[in-house]
Write a structure and sequence with these properties.
- With 226 residues, this protein is an all-alpha fold.
- The protein has two domains: 39 residues, no CATH class; 170 residues, no CATH class.
- It has eleven helices and two strands; from the N terminus they run E-E-H-H-H-H-H-H-H-H-H-H-H.
- It has a two-stranded antiparallel ribbon with strand order 1-2.
- It starts with 17 loop residues before the first strand and ends with a helix.
- The N terminus and C terminus are likely disordered.
- Bound molecules: zinc ion.
């Protein structure tokens, strides 16, 4: 289980007890795992696993031609599984594969947006509940922009990038929920090594697409002829 793999040193015992983000049982401050449900309570591990600055998500999604979105959906399902009392969905990997099935993917994406909005009360203080975004609107926004890849050149490339807006709004909510539960975290995590590699490869292919689509920058002979 992911909970058992959490790294980091538990803080010194003593002080205010902390509520478990999943089952809401109180545990002594500094406990590594929840005595009631076994969830890891090592704060930084949570932040490192599930939070992300919106600009980092946008950059990764845009430069990987939305391939990063698959990882993002998988990570968000894992977060829901860890945070929610029922531990659903049990198989985030299987759901991610389901994204490839037309029709089913719309249901899965709708439920993900809905579940993030309805994240456990402990992780989602009452004053934030009304800020929840309408999952149907997010679904329309996401699927609508993704379908724009069918537009003629060069519009498909620009417009379909905007699909990331719905995950961005959802990630902002995830960040808020995680930080609200764990107030002393350092903030969002940094790029991981695989993400940096993805960025480098993405920049290369983006330049290729830009060059062939817009016939610019690298096409000096063409410019000289005009
Ligand atoms: Zn618990």
């Amino acid at each position: 289980m992911a909970e058992a793999k959490a790294v980091g040193r538990p803080k010194q015992a003593g002080g205010q007890p902390v509520a478990c983000p999943r089952c809401e049982a109180f545990n002594p401050r500094g406990a590594a795992t929840c005595a009631a449900c076994g969830l890891s309570l090592v704060r930084q591990a949570w932040a490192d696993r599930y939070t992300q600055a919106p600009w980092q998500l946008a950059l990764l999604s845009i430069l990987t031609f939305s391939l990063y979105d698959f990882y993002w959906f998988h990570r968000t399902w894992r977060m829901l599984r860890d945070l929610r009392p029922g531990g659903q969905p049990r198989r985030p990997g299987l759901r991610t594969l389901g994204l490839l099935v037309p029709g089913l993917n719309c249901v899965l994406i709708y439920r993900l947006f809905r579940d993030v909005r309805d994240i456990t009360p402990a992780a989602h203080p009452p004053e934030q509940e009304r800020e929840g975004l309408e999952p149907a609107a997010l679904l329309v926004l996401y699927v609508g922009f993704v379908l724009c890849w069918r537009l003629p050149t060069p519009w498909w490339w620009i417009v379909s990038r905007l699909a990331i807006v719905a995950p961005l709004l959802t990630q902002r909510q995830v960040n808020r929920a995680v930080v609200a539960t764990l107030p002393d975290v350092r903030g969002a995590r940094q790029f991981s090594w695989p993400e940096l590699v993805a960025l480098a490869v993405g920049i290369f292919f983006t330049l290729l697409v830009l060059n062939s689509t817009y016939n610019c920058a690298l096409c000096i002979p063409t410019l000289n002829n005009t």
